[in-house]
Design brief:
Low-confidence stretches: none
Strand content: 5-15%
Largest sheet: 2 strands, antiparallel
Order of helices and strands: HEEHHHHHEEHEEH
Number of helices: 8
Structural class: mainly alpha
Radius of gyration: 20 Å
Number of strands: 6
Distance between the termini: 46 Å
Shape: flat
Length: 265
Amino acid sequence: MNNKTLRLTESAIMLALGFILSLLKIIDMPFGGSVTVFSMLPVIIIAYRYKTAWGLLVGFTASLLQMLTGLKNLTYGTSAGAVIAIILLDYVVAFTAMGLGGIFRGRIKDQGVGLAAGAFAACLIRYICHTVVGCTVWAGVSIPTSDGLLYSLVYNAAYMIPETVITVVGAYFAGKIFTLNEQQIKPVPISGSTSKNMFAAVPAALGIVVAFVFIFAMVQTEDGFDITAIAQTDIFDWLAPIIVLIIGIVVSVIVKTYSSKEKKA
């Protein structure tokens, strides 16, 4: 398979994977926006593998797929300008930004850190786009006209912060585990001790991400999230995130301890 065919095949597979993952929603906000299971990561990885120009093209294609699933939102536009703004900011620019996932390739030597930094940049731009269209187009529709900017900042942060955490953590580990800057994706050749340390960190990282999502779900309202809701939360609601976090940390400690003993032996 030549490079062009490989690139097209990989891009098509990752587009499909990203679209399917976008339908697996951990949290679904009442006025648009959701927390998904690594749905941005496939396109970000493609952008890292085949650089920014190709990444932006794939990201643009992903934005059209997302727009097809959200065509109903266009009917809420109060004018032609509002509809255009929704198309450009809520979809085209917001999701095409995933193509910036590889902007730090070659600039940051550590592949995991570079991919995570690119993922963060993509998420940040997406958050800015949703916030801008929220306080302009959606003001008076689903967002109060007064204090529209503040409301939009808070509402969009309610799902973009956990989405960013999930995406950045996933990008970091993907960059650490696989060689993404070569034609063939394969496990990164690392020493046994480094591999064991990374493996030991996975349960704790997953525990933190899942607990983070649980906590955000607890403070979400129809208007975004209200941090004061934590004080009103029943103690039993805290059991799930606490248990998940403790299990993740304990498993990591056990794996780390076992690896250290095995090394000494």
